[in-house]
Design goal:
- This protein starts with a helix and ends with a strand.
- The model is unreliable at about 140-150 (pLDDT under 50).
- The strands form five sheets. It has a five-stranded mixed sheet. Strands 5, 6, 9, 10 and 11 form a five-stranded antiparallel sheet that branches. The protein has a four-stranded antiparallel sheet with strand order 13-14-18-17, with no helix packed on it.
- By secondary structure, it is α+β, with helices and mostly antiparallel strands.
- It has helices at about 1-20, 25-35, 40-50, 50-75, 80-100, 110-125, 155-195, 260-265, 300-305, 335; strands at about 130, 150-155, 245-250, 260, 270-280, 290-300, 320-325, 330-335, 345-350, 350-355, 365, 380-385, 410-415, 425-430, 440-445, 450, 455, 465-475, 475-485, 510-515.
- Helices cover about 30% and strands about 25% of the residues.
- A hairpin with a 4-residue loop joins β7 (about 320-325) and β8 (about 330-335).
Length: about 525
């Protein structure tokens, strides 16, 4: 255990000098995420929510502790073999780090150095527990117990001193690594703090009165940044310095490749729009949806400047592949980005620069599409290609190439298993069908007739809409269900389907006991 601690501490220090994502726990965790079956990933999101990454990291640490104890037992009997096992495990971490989509040769250093330190400490500590030669029989004695048998001599003082020194030095190295990482990240934090968002050239229309129904337990119209859902594969949130950020636009059908920085974007026409984002992993009635006011630059304008034409205008590329600094790839239909909707490179969220966890300094936002085919965070590259030529990250893992947001609705209040009193009970929630809008919401009790709910005022067709139905509740256990109809007249299906491959379907329901 001591040797394992020393190994991780040394790796922490080296990863601070290379990059935090190259640390062995993060690298192995990333490899696990990349290679996990889709069903396992969905299980993690469903049961751990936004804490899925912490659960994975804790699981890796627990496995490392078990491995360390097993190797320690091995080293007591086979000293060199035990130390070699540590080096072998370090090689696994090195391969995982280099094999990441954004990995490079230097990323192997934290695992290699950490393993070398761990192996050295283990070798030194087990050296304090030695096997002495057989004791000669005592003079005049028979074959008494212990005569001629090997025995273990435990150098207690030497063991304690070696362990204490190794632990202290490693703790210092780990703390120094944390300090160095914080120092490097301080520049990114300062660049976000210093970024002054411009006044939009095309501001969002004022939110109509009555958009928020002000009902206890109902989700607010705008989701605060701290409460906005986060579903991605980054174990370490990238913290980029805005001054050094660049975006490259290139590929098939790009007549004039572009490379732009943040200040280049700030000099362009800035738009402000209210847009609801949804994750394809959101189960019926799930929490992975949020609404925000976004500030950014129209992506279509940049593409046209680069000479890109949509397929409807004869362009050869039908897919835009966005790449993140953490290696994530997201494929978006070029037609959707250039069809007039407010697809943007966003740099502001709810009146402040993007939080690091939501893509600072720049991310993509495309209304009407699930996030896995549109909402690339920490974006650094856009390549124009075709769906036939390239499958993005999630498509290679059984998800659909294209995924428009489905018409959905959710009951926020009353909560499942709540116990309201008989009488008038407000049943309220949200409904969404981005880029189509919501025209009607209906509620029913115990499978009976559908009742039309009262809708809040509509902001625009790219945001969710609140609703409420005043239920004359009677005593007993009841099941409430909701369905929505979008702006095209299509009503939400009641057929249950899983999230894979292109989003869950079905009606959200809650069971309450009125008493």
């Amino acid at each position: 255990m001591i040797a394992g601690f020393c190994s991780l501490a040394a790796a922490e220090l080296v990863s601070a000098l290379v990059r935090p994502e190259a640390g062995p726990v993060t690298a192995v965790g990333g490899a696990v995420i990349d290679r996990s079956p889709t069903a396992l990933k969905e299980f993690a999101v469903r049961h751990f929510g936004t804490g899925d990454k912490l659960a994975l990291e804790l699981g890796i640490v627990v496995l490392l502790a078990v491995f360390a104890m097993a190797v320690g037992v091995l080293a007591l009997h086979h000293r060199r073999t035990g130390s070699a096992a540590v080096l072998l495990f370090g090689a696994v971490g090195a391969v995982a780090a280099v094999g990441r989509p954004e990995g490079s040769a230097p990323d192997a250093l934290p695992s290699v150095v950490g393993a070398a330190v761990g192996a050295g400490v283990l070798f030194a500590l087990t050296g304090r527990l030695t096997t002495a030669p057989p004791r000669p029989p005592a003079s005049g004695s028979g074959s008494g117990s212990g005569s001629g048998e090997a025995y273990r001599a435990f150098d207690r003082r030497g063991f304690v001193i070696t362990a204490a020194v190794a632990t202290a030095v490693s703790a210092g190295a780990g703390l120094l690594g944390r300090r160095l990482t914080s120092s490097v990240q301080a520049g990114a934090t300062a660049s976000r703090h210093d970024l002054v968002l411009p006044v939009p050239d095309s501001p969002a229309p004022a939110v109509p009165a009555g958009t928020g129904l002000n009902i206890r337990g109902l989700s607010p119209f705008f989701t605060p940044n701290k409460d906005f859902y986060r579903v991605d594969t980054a174990l370490v949130v990238p913290r980029l310095d805005a001054a050094g950020w660049r975006l490259r636009i290139h590929g098939e059908g790009v007549a004039r490749p572009l490379t732009v920085g943040l200040h280049d974007l700030l000099r362009r026409e800035i738009i402000e729009r209210d847009i609801t984002l949804a994750c394809v992993s959101n189960e019926v009635g799930g929490p992975y949806i949020g609404n925000a006011r976004w500030l950014g630059v129209r992506l279509a304008d940049l593409l046209r400047e680069a000479g890109v034409r949509p397929p409807s205008a004869g362009g050869p590329a039908d897919q835009l592949v966005a790449r993140s600094v953490d290696g994530m790839t997201i494929g978006t239909p070029v037609e959707a980005v250039m069809d007039g909707r407010d697809a943007m490179l966003a740099l502001g969220m709810n009146g402040e620069p993007l939080p690091f966890a939501h893509g600072f300094p720049v991310r993509m936002v495309v209304p009407g599409l699930y996030g896995y085919v549109s909402a690339c965070k920490w974006i650094e590259d856009i390549e124009l290609t075709t769906f036939d030529a390239y499958d993005a990250y999630w498509v290679r893992r059984s998800w659909a190439q294209q995924a428009p947001v489905k018409t959905e609705s959710r009951i926020d209040t009353p909560r499942s298993l709540a116990s309201p009193k008989p009488g008038t009970v407000p049943v309220a929630g949200v409904a969404w069908a981005q880029h189509r809008g919501i025209s009607r919401v209906e509620v029913r009790v115990d499978g009976g007739e559908w009742h039309t709910a009262r809708l809040s005022a509509a902001d625009n067709r790219d945001t969710w809409r609140q609703w409420v139905w005043e239920w004359p509740a009677t005593s007993g256990r009841h099941t409430l269900e909701v369905r929505a109809t979008d702006g095209t007249g299509a009503t939400q299906t009641g057929r249950r389907a899983d999230t894979v491959p292109d989003g869950a379907t079905g009606l959200h329901s809650v069971v309450v006991d009125v008493s």
